[in-house]
Amino acid sequence: MAKFDLNDDSVVVIVGSGAGGGTLGNELAQKGVKVVILEAGPRVEIKDFINNEWESFAQLAWTDMRTTSGDWRVAKDFPNLPAWIVKSVGGSTVHWADASLRFDEHEFRVRTTYGELPGANLLDWPITLAEMAPWYAKAEDKMGVTRTNNIPGLPGNNNFKVLEAGARKCGYKEVHTGRMAINSEPRDNRGSCQQIGFCFQGCKSGAKWSTLYTEIPKGEATGNLEVRPNSMALKIEHAPSGKVTGVVYADADGKTQRQKARIVAVAGNSLESPRLLLNSASNMFPDGLANSSGQVGRNYMRHMTGSVYAAFEKSVHMDRGTTMAGIVRDEAVHDPKRSFMGGYEMETLSLGLPFMAAFLNPGGWGRTFTSAMENYPRMAGMWLVGEDMPQETNRVTLDSTIKDKHGMPVASVHYDDHPNDIAMRNHAYKQGAAIYEAVGATAVYPTPPYPSTHNMGTNRMSAKPRDGVVNKFGQTHDIKNLFVSDGSQFTSGAACNPTLTIVALAIRQADTISPARCRRRKSEVRQSGARTPAPANPRMTPRLLRRVHDRHRRRPVEVGHHRDFTRPVDQAGAAQQRGEIFHLAVVIENFVVKLGEEFREADAFLAGDLFQRIPECNFQPDRRAMTADPKRAGLRFVAALRLVREQAAHGVSSGLLYNFSKRYTRPSEATIGHWSVFGRSGIPVRVKKHVKTKSLEHDRARGCASAV
Amino acid sequence: MREVDRRSKHSRRTFLKGAAAAAPVAAIATNIPLSVEDAWAEDATALQPATMKTLVKVARDIYPHDFLVDSYYITAIKPWDDKAAKDPAVKAMLEDGVKRLDQNAQDKHKCSYADVGWESDRVALLLDIEQTAFFKALRSDLVVSLYNQQALWPKFGYEGSSAEHGGYIHRGFNDIDWLPKT
User: Fold this and answer.
1) In what order do the strands lie in the sheet with A175-176?
2) Is B179 in contact with A319 (Cβ distance < 8 A)?
3) Which value does ipTM take for this structure?
């Protein structure tokens, strides 16, 4: 194991060792970069884990003081525990449940997809699913995600079987034991899942992926990575030039140390990362580091969340086996007909008896409560996790009075539910109850959100520096050698669990930071003999490794551009076919958007009226809309293409493609409203720009009808 | 399906014997009438025995499980005595809280809280003080100190730690047998 000098200013210092920090640390170490990881918590190994909820909580959880405000129920039930995350080496990958899902395509484009939503500070990510696809693939391979890379799914436990039976009865289609970073068969020198349960208490068999015993030891084995446990980062320091120079931290004895650094990457979770940036305020950066946008700490997201537990006549024993290996994905689509934006997942969840008492209905007591508790062995349970709206006022700030033992102000978390969050939660409670009632539930318990496990968005990515804190590589807009590497980069939260995306972003970021990337790019350029095109935005060019970059700074390197994103997903032929459909979908989608804009501009009077009458959802992937109105073949086509793009990014079946081509690739007369947009070949050829009064009136009438 | 054996590993009788053995010898020697059931309360050092007994009654009324004998509630409440011994503010909070509860009971039912016959009447008295620091502290502590006792887990069909038994892979993680076929 490496040991670096405090004055060694050639190291990359990473604050935090979880999904973001631990992954980034190993990836860099593998590429020959020297890394020091500062981890606030102790090093708790597999042998130390405890199959006892409260004892394990005391061992692992981040229980340092925090304060809360806002109308979310957590502030009332757990005023000093806004988040349930881990303070130990491995961070929250020690207690995570391992659901590893990719974002949907539209979830990177929430502003475009959802439009302007009052109170929501929506913004498109500066990256797309297509750009992320190869990094997702790498992350899935690294973590050994089931149902990817030919890894079989986990076997379903009792809790899953109840969920599955109920969901099928309700007509849900995408129901399985999840894409889980838990070995269903031995892989990566780790054994397969023993169905122990207690996934939240640290996996005693090591079957589930955690940076604690995968990334970190692998990084350490290279001799390039040093992990310093019990090292609480207090402040990031910078030079008069504005570049960061190192991190001040409190060591195990509480003594203040200063580790010099060439690059600092902050990965302390969405509460601690903004806190550290804010606590690092200086004369030069009075509002905190990287905060010229004022967005540090803002747009805090924690997912809609909620749970449904249900009691049955006979036993279930939901606590036996893998906690979260079960999912219903049908509601994860964006379908505004449900009267909210975005979607949610339903995932199996169980708690042990002690946690069930604490979380089933916090504050509850009396016979109603105890009769529910007495149903424990007959209970099944699911977690509802859905996209919550980013709001500027939902934010992490420094508490004005309370300081930690090192004298630094603690994080104060404000969160109000957005009306969209509430509408989604109510819908999810209803659907969750329906699933269990379909298989004979005798009582249903809609359980309020737990302290947040999915903390996101407080240093969000943005294309423009004024909209966010970091660029598409997690590099802060303001300070070139300061990075953010955890979930706080998220521009929006998506419906699914965030860890896979955090890991994928970390792998991608390591590729950006490391010198190998630059060398490889350079050699590629030499081989092809072509000049690398200059990137559109010079900010996107990482100039992090001065020593390496200085040699060829005059030839900026374009990073992260992958035209061939579909290739590794499947076999060559299918991939090519899909690629074509992809590109067609992109063309048509762009075309529709453009058409819409042109139309808006062309005639403000008519356009305003008409576009209010054509619901936005007609431009979204909407399964029901596709069959509802046969006259709108064009819109159906667009919607179908979008669906295919989403599906394909998740590994599409050939059957779906077949059905797709059968149903949608030969529309006799594809139209959008009354404008013919497609030629016989299916390629857009012509738009009738002039608007006939008659057809408009017709449209209005129909718009009225469909609005009703 | 493999079910959990819900029978107690130790009987109520043995527990009370143990508690009685721990009662102060002096108290027994001076021949104060002392039933075996009450012996544990006399153990209290900081709080009045009557306060301890009322607290146990309150504990049962907050989380009533009729299949649980008093010993579980006693175990859950006992640590308050230590806390009261260490912190006079805690002691005052508990003694005053019980006093107020007894006073309310006297006003409504002409008897102390513990002697109010029906649970629903006692619950009404608790609802009156639900927002007090006393009740909140008691309830939030109890939800852990009661349900975190390993001895009562089997009664709820919960088996606790499983890693040392090799997990549930061979112990019924998927043995549900009553679901309709899908």
Assistant:
1) A175-176, A327-328, A344-348, A379-386, A306-311, A443-447
2) no
3) 0.88
